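pinning this so it doesn't scroll away 📌
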Amino acid sequence: MTQPNIVLPGPVETALGLLETAGFEAWVVGGCTRDALLGDTPKDWDITTSALPEETLSVFSDYRTIETGLQHGTVAVLLDDMLLEITTYRVDGTYKDSRHPDAVTFTRTLGEDLARRDFTMNAIAYSPARGYEDLYGGAADIEAHLIRCVGDPETRFTEDALRILRALRFSSVLGFAIEEKTSSAIHALKERILHVAWERISAELLQLLCGKDVYRVLQDYRDVFAVLFPELKPCFDFEQKNPWHIYDVYTHTCHAVEHIEPEPELRLAMLLHDLGKPETFFTDDKGVGHFYGHAKHSARIADDIVHRLKLSTAMQDEVRTLVEFHDYPLEATDHILLRRLHKFGPDTLRHLILVQRADCLAQNPAKTGEDLDRLSTIEQKLNILLNKDPVYRTRDLAVDGGDLIALGMEPGPQMGAFLEDLLEAVMAGDLPNERESLLAYVREKGMKP
């Protein structure tokens, strides 16, 4: 199979050329080669070489180098404002912690280096001077849209359990299938994921959730996700017995994830939004299923999960809010929208509209047409309202605490409550947001210390 030459950035070509001129082999390898063959622009360029770390340092003695990865054979070199990682061919030792090799051994043979890599599509090396080195059929697997482990899958996943999630992430993001033996090993070794730090799990999971093929991956590997989140298990095959729902809770959840914009906090919120349904389920006297209060139960469960994932405080708060209020009533009236803006702010309110739309799209299409139209109207009304610079926060009022103090009110909770009363009156259209009108309202109400 003839593959096109890869157009390399100038600094990368320079680095390869300097190493080759010094008598060493040098290749770009891994994700950059894979992305180039996929027709995508690589984000990072990794270089592998037969030069030992001290030899690499000598070749680039005229450039700024960073030696923080020397024990693993990596030297970072700054060329023309591009930071390149140059790593010596190596063979990994045993992996006692299912994540990191206990030791690495440097080698002069590219084939030994490629043999330690995770997937065939990531084990392709390219050099302008030497062409491609593809010992494991990675280019053919890329063309076939297939993810396959290099060598024995069980060995690869036992060495580094994060590779299990990486395989699922690549499958979701690229839309590639996972080769049968590789897939079987994922299912068999899924429990090993718990050896991986949650920060690394979180990084892979959020990318996975934003993939174009996320629905298939969530369904086909639900047993793997249940290892990370046992809270999902009660949702599996849980029939909702409700005319609004044609899917079980977990299938509905998977559809909801795929129907929302691929932003990490939105996709994660949809994965967690109905976790409280099984524990709140009951049927009425007609046999119809209901889940009253499930959103609050889901938020409580989601709170544990976002802490487990060690997300930023801001993302934790946003996901928790979206889950807790995913079925909160929204209406296309200025008064209600202003109150919702006051409660959530513009960004979260926009997210809630998206959440409710995704929730509808994952329900019975014969029932949700009116709700989808209503949400579109709400979104349009919100955009119009926000363009008018609306008043929805106490700081937007034409009076402040100093004005109330001047009228004899003591600072404290009473003042805050009265400012909220003023804001509600303005949002309801009962008062104009004008200083004199607001002060007259205060005097009329007779608020005193």
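📌 and the second one:
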Amino acid sequence: MTKLQEYLCNYITEDRISDLASDEEYIHAQQVRDAAEKKLSALLITEQIELFSCYMDEENYLASLHLRHIFQEPLALAPDLLNLTL
């Protein structure tokens, strides 16, 4: 990832992601996910909860890699923009 890509990615993920806190669809999806996780955790023993947590960490990491690659595609369409230095 170039410095410009890294800067833009950080800006979006750190500064703009807070906008999701007021997005009704996002809030609803988060509530549904949290309820499902509570139901699942109530049925699992401690070892299974730990395994599930490790799995979710890896799933979240994979999803972030996926989103990073998707994010890079639009930037690749603008080569002049990528030649700028910060």
